[in-house]
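Two proteins, back to back. First:
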Amino acid sequence: MKCFLLLSAFLVALCKLHAQTTPPEAAPAQLKLNAPLDYQVFQRRDAHKGNIAISGVFAQMPNEVLVRSVVNGQSSDWKPLTVAINDLSFSAGFELPAGGWHRLELRTKLNGKVIEEATVEHVGIGEIFIVAGQSNSANHGEEKQSTQTGRVAAFDGRRWQLANDPQPGASGKGGSFMPPLGDALVKKFNVPIAFIPCGIGATSVREWLPKGVTFPHPPTIESRVHKLPGGEWESRGDAYAGLLEHMQDAGPHGFRAVLWHQGESDANQKDTTRTLPGKLYREHLEYIIRTSRREIGWEAPWFVAQVSYHVPGDEASADIRAAQAALWQNGVALAGPDSDALKGELRERHGQGVHFSGQGLREHGSRWASQITPWLQQQLK
């Protein structure tokens, strides 16, 4: 018995020594992902699903790549991911159901052993809108807004984030209508909503024309236009180039629509030579819409709001409003909200300014939602 006890004690000590001298198995390395990014939303293909882009760089070449998603604590099965590989860089597409946020998990294996892992906490399949125009399409509202659902995102061309004001990519440091609009659409369609904001305060439609397009008289602000020797003016094209870049980067059918809110800087200018006749406003905006569609290679829908309000006593331009409405009537664009109707306490400084108050931003978002919702329901049938 004594020998048995001694042998047992020896074996226990030997096991302890082995445990102390054997290094633990290394944890999987962090897989470098370039896409998707956190809070990234992908335009859904139909009411039920969409594709996400996955790309990154392997530290070590695997012979198996697996992916799964987790929503509301419910995990899908691990599925093999077919990847295109160039050296150690890889890319792939993967279908997900509409909705989210999805938590996306990836792992790579070599000979059955997990060697790298990555997780993206917030990935959505939903609706994406590009927002362009002047200050009331950007961050010049009186009160910053935030998403109440937590399912509204914004993208500035480099980084995705929750769409809390100020919106990335647009001018100004104040509030916008995008968080309340996004929340309204989230509640209606139960998918994440994303905005790509690129509005620029005080811009005329002339400043949004492609480079080299000419017109007889300049807008009130001349920094984005150029005078020609013959006396005409031309657009420098910077605003259009930025808008087009966002549209092209999204890819074919990679966003649902452009939301255009602009007109104040073309209506009823103090220097009447800077006021744009409605006929030219319609021609210029139609040129922007048709040219951008041709350059991106698909018929992207545009919503055009009615916009010409300045201050009490200068509350509308019938000429500019008719030009905006003509684009709907001719089938060039879809009808956005009539924001000239938002007055009084819905405007900044107790109704004395051109920009919206906090209450006005929320009402503006609600009116955009009222225009978008029935149209989008038809698209999803």
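And the second protein:
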Amino acid sequence: MAGLQIPTVYEGEIKSKRRIGRVMSETDFLNIFAARTTGDFIRSYSGGQQEETSITLPQDFSFYLAGNFTDGISYFFELEHEAIHIEGTKEGRFEEGSRLGLGKEFFFMFDLPILLSRDLSGMAGMTREGMHHGSGAMIHGPMMMAGKIDPSTSFSYPTNRQLILNLPGRVTDTGKMERLRLTPYAFASKFFGVMTADSEPVEVTRSVLYNTTGDLGIDTHMMIGPLLIQAGVMQGLLSGPTDSNPKKDPYLMGRINFGGKRYISGSLSGLAYRGYDTARVPTGVNQTTLVDWLRYGVAGNIRYRLLDFYGAFIWDTLKGQDHLSATFDKKAAGFTIEGDYLTTDRTLLSLRYDQMNSGGLIAEKTDGKVLTAQARYYLRDNFSFYLRDSYNLKEANRNPLRNFRNLVALGLDFDF
């Protein structure tokens, strides 16, 4: 409703796109503004070495501005406050605290055919009108995003749009991870002991690379009939606005859509990502070296009436340091699958399974399996309460990946 330009869609919810500039009324402002808050009335970890019961409300509060500068240029700005935010430092520690700043995404989107004043309808009989004409195929785009982006928005299983929310971990007083954040394991870094190019440690369950929740990059994508093609480059592993490594990370993704009749639809995606000197790994006492990071993945989703299934396999390999094989496992993999069923017009039931076969420092790494069940009750379409239970299917121990047996949380999700 904010008017963020979508390929071939020039009206959307409002007939005239709101241009940025003087806001004439409350109605005009609400067309480009939104806010969202999430948090838990109670969150209880049990069965691990460090049990915890807490109230974190709100955990996240986000402001959004989205709309158009022109018909061909859109913007999406997010500002976010997190009550518990964990980042690595250059001293090799983790720090836990609150954070206020740029949110997960902050980008500009460009409709290239409009900006270049080109009509692509003549390409191989394709049309931009949004309908099939004879043997022609619908074409969308190409579109380009630039800024702090989540490339996986076009993937069959997007990183950001989670019905089962991510939960932050916990850091000890000495800067060690006591418990890792709960996220879909397919998207995680998966390597114990890996660092950014600037020597900042990376949380093992942090969503990174193509599956980041937001990092600097340029993304181009277009659709030809049921096929979506996406290519882009990212700044690097959690590099932020500055990157000590001048090399960038290219990626390529393809998605094919199917169905659309008799209440059945879905898609399949394939991904290839290459990070050049994008991460550091330890080579000895106070010594590290840059390595390449290869990520391959497949994802799919299928929808039938009120039931959704979706999942992803992601494989990761570090390249460039063969002599580390005795102490550092260079391969890792993650698998996530989820099902959501709308039982009534107000009740949504979700079940998710996550599995991680981790890599990294052999002395520290361990594997993980978590099963999460959740029920959401919607008071309104923008206001819901949820009750979740995440159960560690592996043996609970002091490793931060498995330092809990059970997590129960009751919270709310509200957007305006």
